[in-house]
Amino acid sequence: MLDELRQIVTEVSKSADLRAALDLIARRVQSALDVSVCSVYVLGGDEAEAVEPSLVLQATEGLNKAMVGQVSLALDEGLVGLVARRAEVINLEDASLHPAFKFVTDIGEEPYHGFLGVPIIHRGDVLGVLVVQARERRRFSDDQESFVVTLATQLASAIRHARASGELMRTGNEPGGFDSAFSARGLPGSPGVVFGTAVVVADGQSLEMVEDREVEDIDHELGVLDSAIEAVRQEFEQLKIDFARASGSEEENLLFDAYIRMLSGGSLVEAIEQHIRAGQWAGAALRDAIAEHAAVFEQMSDAYLRERAQDIRDLGNRVLHKLHAESAGPTEWPDQIVLVGNDLSASHLAEVPTERLVGIVSSTGSGSSHLAILARALGVPAAMGVSDLPISRLRNKEVVVDGYRGLVVVRPRGSLREEMQRLAREEAELTEELAALRDEPALTSDGVRVAMHVNIGLLSDMAPSLTVGAEGIGLYRTEVPFQIRKQFPGEEEQAHIYREALETFVGKPVVLRTLDVGGDKPLSYFPIREDNPFLGWRGIRLVLDHPEIFLTQIRAMLKASAGLNNLHILLPMISAVEELDQSLAYIEQAFDEVSEEIGEIRRPKIGVMIEVPSAVYQADALARRCDFLSIGTNDLTQYLLAIDRNNERVASRYDALHPAVLAAIRDICAAGARQDCEVAVCGELSGDPLGAVLLLGLGIHSLSMSAGSLPRIKWVIRSFSHADAQALLEQAMRCERPAEIRTLLNQALDDRGLGGLIRAGRY
């Protein structure tokens, strides 16, 4: 049964579309289990259109096929509805005796008694039900039940993907393209609603992410393919020579020989060329031909031969890498770019003209991932973790990004389109209204002033920071200049960069954070490979182990500050007083060296980022040793809740308004007050309208955020009194769930006419 299960899974993966996959499942399961009926019901309904969900018969073997697409059951109807509602397996000897049994006319299930219903679940959401029925009265065995459960898990991702793309809603006469509206939902990344044209960033090293494209010149595609194959073939010839010279043996070269033969003609190359002649571009032709050949090996009973499927894929990826190099050419950018990709990063943003970028959609990440932070800095709406979107097929499609809800709608139509256009207009009007607050102070109605600072990562961020009325830089991420270079920048180069930031905000505080790489911020020229990078060699740990890097950066900061006297230095990822003591000693060493070299300079203020739990509990000891504390709510939330904020499977549980996080921030503020040490917040919570209210209530007088968030937060502060914020804080601290806190704060903002800051609307 295991071999049969594996073969079914392989065949399903080769299906042309979901309907073919569902038909195959129904047919093969009926045969494998020798049962009378196998049917697949899929949960339909559209959140954007407010359509109530129902279970629709989408495939069957044994029942009336004419009823496919016609039979629809509500979640409170019949045994199928019961399986979906309970999200658990139901195995019955005689279905007709169960109180939930519902007879459906014209479907042809009158003579069947044995019933096995298995929910199809994807990440906690029920997507449908896989049903097996027997004519006789009998309970299905444990092995049969496990067989069906396993197939249901295999179907889940395919159904989720197809439901998001609208594939299940098309009739058999419609084309396989995306001509009707469909939507997919992820996580909010950066607020706003915008229309644009999808520009897909494909992973050049992944066959699975190769997108479909229209082909104008088939001969050109064949030529590009030939060049790429020849380049890879020459690489293998050289590897064969090098390996034989190193090992003194010819036996190990058998794999290289096999690769060379496959690339020298034969079925694989012919298959790729056939796909090109059928109208595919070279990358998609390679993708499909490799999948077909790999599937042949996967169906073989011999384990060794099955493993050769991976060799085929590795070969395909090598050719793909060369193919991208061969086919790269000038890009014609649309006027309104929505950048879409599987795992977008800051480097991808640099590849498109920023002045045309209006939206970002990533299938991975969350609202607290580095990409979302950059999106907010740019003031660009973003949806993160939209894992159900068929990215490779969105090229040049019209898309709408709702960053408030993490929703992406492709080709909206009718009333939905009208509503989203209205929301986009309102968003533009809100932005214009907020611009009028530029020169106004962030002053509460009872006279408490809050300093409004910005977080930046590049010198290009300076201009938008000035246009929104920033009163200083609360966090300069110095790792960004390191990330966009191919080697560590030298002392003079760093000093030039920092000097420009300090001069731009002369007379105002500029907080330069020392190098904070590792985790989700790697350096290509300084690779760090760890099983758990967020708990590994990152932040202050790395630079203390490499004092030459740390001292060079501190010296550059001090040189840059000469005569300006507005430098503050911030130390990231401090988890123990020993780390702070060692850092202060190095700073003192650098200060003496620079003073001797260029003359007298003013000592900068030194701050500690509080972003790990141990620092919360040692906040008093840390505050005694430094000039200010700056709370990094992003990592603090991640470490307190044990949630990787970049992992879309758990990112929905990441919430900086969790009562535990608020309690930690309260304790840090109390420690700062006891030690007469200033406390600021530079994490993303300070740029959240809900979070800003609570931080105001805690008495934090310095908030730092992205330039795009600053006008919104200024409006919030000017709409509250400090006393009201304190009262809301007291209520929030009595809550046990983040949802309760959000409800409380949402109502408070609504009462003051600020609802537009936290949601775009309902549709």
From TrEMBL:
Name the UniProt record assigns to this protein: phosphoenolpyruvate--protein phosphotransferase
Gene: ptsP
Uppermost EC category: transferase
Organism the protein comes from: Guyparkeria halophila
Entry-linked Gene3D superfamilies: 3.30.450.40, Phosphoenolpyruvate-binding domains, Phosphohistidine domain, PtsI, HPr-binding domain
EC number: 2.7.3.9
Upper taxonomic lineage: Bacteria, Pseudomonadati, Pseudomonadota, Gammaproteobacteria, Chromatiales
Known cofactor(s): Mg(2+)
UniProt feature coiled coil, ranges: 413-440
Catalytic activity field: L-histidyl-[protein] + phosphoenolpyruvate = N(pros)-phospho-L-histidyl-[protein] + pyruvate
PROSITE patterns: PEP_ENZYMES_2
GO molecular function terms listed in the Swiss-Prot or TrEMBL record: phosphoenolpyruvate-protein phosphotransferase activity
Domain of life: Bacteria
Localization in the cell: Cytoplasm
Family label: Belongs to the PEP-utilizing enzyme family.
Keywords noted in UniProt: Coiled coil, Cytoplasm, Kinase, Magnesium, Metal-binding, Phosphotransferase system, Sugar transport, Transferase, Transport
Domain (GAF) ranges: 17-169
